Amino acid sequence: MKKHLLSIGEISEVTGVHISSLRYYDKLGVLKPAYIDSDTSYRYYTYSQVEIVGAIQTCIELDIPLKEYLSFTDDSGQTIHAKELLEYGKMQAKKKMQAISEGIKKIEQYQLLIEHSKQLLNAIEPIEYYVRKKRYFVIPMSHSLSEDDYKNIDRFPLLLEKQGYQMGTEYGLLYFYKSDLIERYQFIEIVSGKNAKDSNVITIPAGSVLSKSAMPEKIENAALEFPDLFSRDGIKTVILTGLFTENIDVNNLLYELRCYLPK
């Protein structure tokens, strides 16, 4: 009988799949040997099972759990419902491509942030640039900035996840200077969310800002940092956020302080 079968070593050589993986597939029930020698316990496979190994590898490449693969075979595991498997694989491949595309976009965003940080850190004077409309999830602060306040922003991601929001790249402090009072918030940027009317969400319209690198405490005296802007009428919107730099020193983080030009 063994004369027309492939040993586990031979099927490994033909398919390029390691012997230990083939044994694992057997354990999961997705690739049962056609014959097991009762004396030596050696596993043997038919030539047609080479195609089954190929189908299993396709599932792995597309992140299809091998337990799901069984739903595309008959009870014996020797017949593959190829059409259904390929359609499902195509759907999974499209999802994977979308995830890769989104990952590349995110990488490109961070590359732009690095370039922005370079420009800001090399500037002698504050720089002016345009900022698109932003949506921030905020928590009010009832007092001036302390070091613990800024560290508390670390808990935002879990809070956002619970409320169904997707995070953006910015986080920090948002202050509204209104004549003789200051409204203070901790914030994290959101790029999508379930509830546009959430009381914890503030939208900052697109506009030009004046920006400089600064330490966090400078936001408490923004009028000294941007005297010309604060000499004008109207509410002043000031933001402190971390800079994403080429080399990030966690013990010496750098920050951006920016003030929107009054309209």
From TrEMBL:
Instruction: Tell me the InterPro entries matching this sequence.
Output: DNA-bd_dom_put_sf, MerR-type_HTH_dom, MerR_fam
Answer whether the UniProt record assigns the keyword rRNA-binding to this protein.
Answer: no
Which keywords are on file for this protein? DNA-binding, Repressor, Transcription, Transcription regulation
**SUPFAM superfamilies from the xrefs?**
Putative DNA-binding domain (SSF46955)
Q: Where is the HTH merR-type domain?
A: 5-75
Q: Does the keyword Transcription regulation apply?
A: yes
Q: Which SMART domains match?
A: HTH_MERR
Give the molecular function GO annotations: DNA binding; DNA-binding transcription factor activity
The protein in question is named: MerR family transcriptional regulator
Per the UniProt record, the source organism is Hungatella hathewayi
